[in-house]
Amino acid sequence: MDARILPPTPEAIAEAADLLRAGQLVGMPTETVYGLAANASDPDAVARIFSAKGRPNDHPVIVHVAAGDDLSRWAAHVPGAARRLMDAFWPGPLTLILPRAPGVPDAVTGGQDTVGLRCPSHPVAQALLAAFGGGVAAPSANRFGRISPTTARHVADEFGAAVPLVLDGGPCEVGIESTIVDVSGELPLLLRPGHISALALSEVLGTAVLTRSQMDDRRAVPRVSGSLSAHYAPRTPLKLVHADRLPGEVAAARAQGRSVGVWSKRDPGGAAVWVEAPADPEGYAHALYATLRELDARGLDVLMLEQPPETLEWSAVRDRLGRAAVGSGPA
Length: 331
Known about the structure:
By secondary structure, this protein is of the alpha/beta class. Helices cover 31% and strands 18% of the residues.
């Protein structure tokens, strides 16, 4: 049995809100990827997310809130740096790690003393949050470690009847998960790159935003979504290859009798399937997961993706591709 995919009419949004109140799961569109939504105040409902995804129990989930919500239900306090980032980027693809308020379920935080909050900009997500009237836990609506969904059909194909309703908000605009910034300590720390760059964050804060590699080991770094080395992975082995080496790599695979799918800016020749890759990081990110899903469904022996440029603008894409290559296994 398949999940029901419904257009976001007022009636469908009201039904989705009722399902959340009843402790059920709902597929929710956001501007980043589709989320597997549950009532964040209900530990049993959040547990259904972990069960459906096969997600480790100590892996925290992000709480999505409506624009203008009182954050005191979730955060013990909101530092000035967090307020500046909210003013600049909320609603939008930015998750903030804040000190956890008393009463926030351990199921949401993974037992940590911090909580991740995000205010999505997608109008359907905002309509659902307003109709529900509370915070919604909504990690990406895919099996743990696999390719994130960017359409309602992806969610239905992934979970079937385990998710009774998916609201169809169209293809996700951004296409990769939110930027995550830890603002629970003295210095802001970028924990996951995304559409909002470290430079944009620094310009708002008036100070550099550090990365994990720049942090002093004495500071404990919160566990956050998407931080494992293997993630976002297709089942087909995936290999990242520099553009000038692609023709040779494809030819070598063909000589071994292996079928190859390629995503690159130029056709290297010899591939069973070649998909032209966007030349800009925003276009690439938007198409990334849908293209990986398309290639993964072809029954190929190996996927070869052109290595993105080593520039700041491509950091979020490089992050996702690196984890996908590890998670897919040896190519």
